[in-house]
Amino acid sequence: MASERQIHVGAVPVGGGAPVAVQTMTKTETANLTATMDQIRTVAEAGADIVRVAVPREQDAEALKSIVAQSPIPIIADIHFNHTLALKAIEAGAHCVRLNPGNIGGPEKVAEVIALAKQRGTPLRVGVNSGSLPKHLRQLEYDNPVEALVTAAIETVELMESLDFSNFKVSMKSTSVPNTIASNRMLAEKIPYPLHLGVTEAGTKWSGSLKSAVGLGTLLADGIGDTIRISLSTFHAEEEVKVAWEILKALKLRERGPDLIACPTCGRLQFDMDTVVAEVERRLEAYEDPIEVSVLGCAVNGIGEARHADFGITGAKDMGMIYSKGEPLKKVPTGQLVDELFKEIDRYYAAGKSVQRDEAAAAEARAWLAENEDETAMTPERIAALEAAAAKNDELAGEVLESMLTPAGAAAGSAAEDPALVLDEAVSPVAGRRFSRS
Ligand code: SF4
Predict the structure, then answer these.
(1) Helix crossing, 177-190 with 205-221: angle to 10°?
(2) pTM of the model as a whole
(3) N or C: which end of the chain has fewer CB atoms below 10 A?
(4) Which of 261, 265, 375 to mutate to test the pocket of ligand 1 (most atoms within 8 A of CB)?
(5) Whose CA is nearest to atom 3 of ligand 1?
(6) pLDDT of residue 386
(7) Given the CA of residue 379, which atom of ligand 1 is nearest to it?
(8) What SS3 class is residue 127?
(9) What integer pLDDT is reported at residue 23 of this predicted model?
(10) 127 alpha carbon to ligand 1 midpoint, in Å?
(11) What pLDDT was estimated at residue 401?
């Protein structure tokens, strides 16, 4: 269930049914204004709604004023252990301050921070970490870590309420995905405040993205969670933002940019689809509209399950086809598929989002499709469709969530200026498959 209460971090609403906000955290030395602002602009460009900066020292708190003034998105100051820095962050105009009331020096210091936050209208993110629960919960943590986390979070909420403060969101951080899911489910039933979700110290880009997708995706699919941060061990905070967006897009909670659908390939593939998909993904980065673009490795299925795609391509050894909403547009040599696909997409936008059809070219493409389609072939897509139908009949069908991007080291800049993408054997082996790359 979505949180009842809503707070505002700068101009960004969090909770109370607002779109799930994407957060990340800078990895630079905060007081290094140039480096920090560069990273903030990069993550904002990638789609971060809110960004957090670490404030462990006086000079970082001092830098906050300039950062807040220059940042295109709201700033959260991340404070630990030092309530003076929390006060300075609020004074500097931070749009939100993250702190753990249990570790900033006792009730009087908490009250002092809350008093200033109230006076300045600054929201707080309060929370607990599985690694630093209060002493009286240590045994419970050992016996039942989920209950210990939730108990600590509720004690924090009660402390805020006892100070007549309600302008806050809550986070419970754990490195365990099952504990993250169970504790947030439990807490969401007990409190009306917005929840910040994250799997803490999730890991590298690969494992961390998957853990986060499973943990946060499960909660978000239940309607739990108002803002998310993906924690990845990489300097490139924008990667965290991209993963967050893929999770939200996969769940259809938010839209941002195109959605690329691509078949997994199989032994029917006769052209270098790996390069084609990577190139399509790279060029799509230049588009903001949430169009759906599909890449199929062969025409054996016909257009099949990609029928709903706004645009798509399907290829064979030498020839391929471009289609839109299940209807062929034109047949083109395989080597020109990507360029011609983007010409069609650009024509669509130039015509005010209207697909431009040339009937002669479409008829030629339809004939090509009819030649290449094989209605009897048991392809992965048809097997999947049969399995889905069977599961539905048995009332066993559940929702299958697919996500995760594997950005192919996409370069910035417009497609027209970029050199062709070349994948090497380690990234995408050619050996043992039905095409060559040379
Ligand atoms: S049968 Fe399906 S998975 Fe195999 S190449 Fe064709 S579209 Fe891709």
Answers:
(1) 30
(2) 0.81
(3) C
(4) 265
(5) 265
(6) 76
(7) 1
(8) strand
(9) 97
(10) 47
(11) 44
Q: How far apart are CA 247 and CA 254, in angstroms?
A: 9
Atom of ligand 1 nearest to the CA of 264: 3
| In a domain? residue 430 | no
Cα 373 to middle of ligand 1, angstroms: 11
* Domain residue limits at 344: 259-393
CATH number, domain containing residue 177:
3.20.20.20
Pocket of ligand 1 contains residue 264 by CB under 6 Å: yes
* CB distance 208 to ligand 1 below 6 Å: no
Residues 171 and 195 in one domain: yes
Per-10-residue mean pLDDT, the chain, length 438: 90 97 96 95 97 96 97 96 94 95 86 96 92 86 93 95 97 92 96 95 87 96 97 92 95 94 91 94 93 92 84 91 94 95 97 95 93 78 76 62 42 51 79 74
| Domain closes at, from 202, 232, 250 | 250
In 3D space, the residue among 136, 148, 83 whose CA is nearest the CA of residue 109 turns out to be 83
Q: Is 374 in the pocket of ligand 1 (CB under 6 A)?
A: no
**What spacing in Å lies between the alpha carbon of 300 and ligand 1's midpoint?**
7
- Residue 84, pLDDT score: 96
Note the pLDDT of residue 116.
97
Are 37 and 104 in a shared domain? Answer: yes
Compute and round to an integer the Cα radius of gyration of the chain. 25
Q: How far is the CA of 332 from the centre of ligand 1 (A)?
A: 19
Same domain, 211 and 267: no
By most ligand atoms within 8 Å of CB, the mutation choice from 263, 305, 317, 378 for ligand 1 is 263
CATH of the domain at 351: 3.30.413.10
What does 166-227 look like in DSSP terms, one character per residue? Answer: --EEEEEEBS-HHHHHHHHHHHHHH--S-EEE-BTT--SHHHHHHHHHHHHHHHHHTT--SE
